[in-house]
Amino acid sequence: MEPANILVIEDDAIVARTIERCLRGEEFRVTVANSGIEGLKAARRHVPDLVILDVIMPGMDGYAVCKEMRNDPLLADVPILFLTAKVKDEDRIAGFRAGADDYLGKPFNLDELILRVRAILKRTRFRAKSGDEAPGRSFPLGQLIPGIFQSKRSEEKTTESSRLISLRGYTLDTQTFEVVTPHAGRIRLTPVQYDLLYHLMTHPGEIFSPQRLLDEVWDYPSDAGSPDLVRVHIKNLRERIERDPKNPTFIETVPGYGYTIRKEETI
Asked: Max Cα separation, the chain?
């Protein structure tokens, strides 16, 4: 597998060089940009596998860069890890609302940075591989072999249904990373929102603690990551897909335990 391409957007030259040396030592390919605008230009020239992004930068700050990436079809699915001195709860919430996948505060431990980078890349590369191999890609009707039209149509219907996960009125498309809700129609999810919702929907009735989700969705060991990461992403996901995010009925909280999506009700 080719080494991952990582874009570091950091205006502090010393910090940028430290991160670059650390990543290159792990055999990643690294590009460094010293401003938000320069970073966006670099990302559009060569789409990275991951962006490590500072928040406090002159001109265009990290939150604005993150939002710009999420609104750009070319960059919308690129995972973003904030690495910043802004570590208050409201800062983290702002970062996740802007579309970040993870958030690491300064000063930071280089080993933890590498651990999080590897976990994000492992998750996103698995998703990309699954998407490439996922059934359901349309078969051009003009290329159908005469005499087997009906069988091909049946096969298409089967593969289309196999890529859809439906539960309690919500349908998740594992090829387009969109969810269809019963009240707001089709919604395109961010990569981490998709991973989180996919995990919950494929384990209906199970209760997941924040720590278990960090392990199973983020692929973080027990000593890495914060439960706040899970709580904020659950909150953001609810705001996008629930009819009333303050009173969620799809992704439910089980007090003292965690989160669950109940199985279909039986009559």
From this structure: 67
Judged by DSSP in three states, 68 sits in helix
Query: pLDDT tens digit string along 158-186?
Result: 455 678 999 999 999 998 889 999 998 89
> What secondary structure letter does DSSP report for 134?
-
Classify residue 111 as exposed, middle or buried by CB count within 10 Å of its CB (0-12, 13-18, 19+). Answer: exposed
Q: Which own/partner contact pairs does 17-21 have at CB distance under 8 Å and 24+ positions apart?
A: 18/110, 19/52, 19/83, 19/113
99: left (phi over 0), alpha (psi -120 to 50) or beta: left
Torsion of CA 68, 73, 74, 78, to 10 degrees: 70
pTM of the model: 0.69
User: Residue holding tokens 């961010």?
Assistant: 190
Q: Within the chain, which residues score under 70 in pLDDT?
A: 1, 125-161, 221-225, 265-267
3-state secondary structure of 55: coil
- Residue 133 has, within 13 A of its CA and on its CB side, a CA count of 5
Cβ distance 65 to 9 under 8 Å?
Answer: yes
End-to-end CA distance of the chain: 50
**Integer Cα distance of 257 and 250 in angstroms:** 16
Report the C-alpha gap between 5 and 45 in whole angstroms: 13
Angle at 117 between CA 233 and CA 80, to 5 degrees: 50
